[in-house]
């Protein structure tokens, strides 16, 4: 049984290898980590340390070479097993470029509704989207615009709404504010931290920004494998 204090995300001895055969190269040193509901962990380290690789493994976009990832104490992925389809809503991502989260020709609302329906099987998305937008401090009317008709900060808040509305246990944000000016980046990362805390979501946040890392519950520094 999962209790309030048991980890939402467990990363146990995970490593990564890029390439095959003679070209195979270790790209993530053995990494272990627990994040409880509502906690946030900043993943920091030099360029090439493996931060995005760790984010991709947690999202289920690539498999670890060793180790395993658990979500809510239940196996999420291993070197031989992808995340199960019916649990995909449990881990959501906020990308570096918020435009990547949306279909360019659609309103933000349509992309969000479609993602929530696909991931939850629920047809009525209204209350989920309204609550997520309220917590992300995004005016609901802005969701009627297309991705290029809002500011970078508004688009990133909308990407946060898209990620939290399906009800994930874990949110993975890979450099979510690096394309924004310092003041907007500050406000957007504050919103991300408060939404996840409020909803009891575990946040894995890849960042180069020390002021963002400082606001997280903990920092995990990773180094490239030797
Ligand atoms: N598709 C790929 N093919 C081969 N090697 C890759 C690939 N993607 C990443 N790598 C390598 O894996 C290592 C880790 O890359 P990763 O993108 O995870 O680092 P990072 O810490 O996120 O870096 P940055 O801060 O620059 O974004 C690097 O040495 C990189 O060159």
UniProtKB/TrEMBL annotation:
Gene3D superfamilies: P-loop containing nucleotide triphosphate hydrolases (3.40.50.300). Belongs to the ABC transporter superfamily. The keyword Transport applies. The keyword Ribonucleoprotein does not apply. It comes from Promicromonospora umidemergens. This is ABC transporter domain-containing protein. It holds the Pfam family ABC_tran. Residues 9-224 form the ABC transporter domain. It comes from the Bacteria. Keywords: ATP-binding, Nucleotide-binding, Transport.
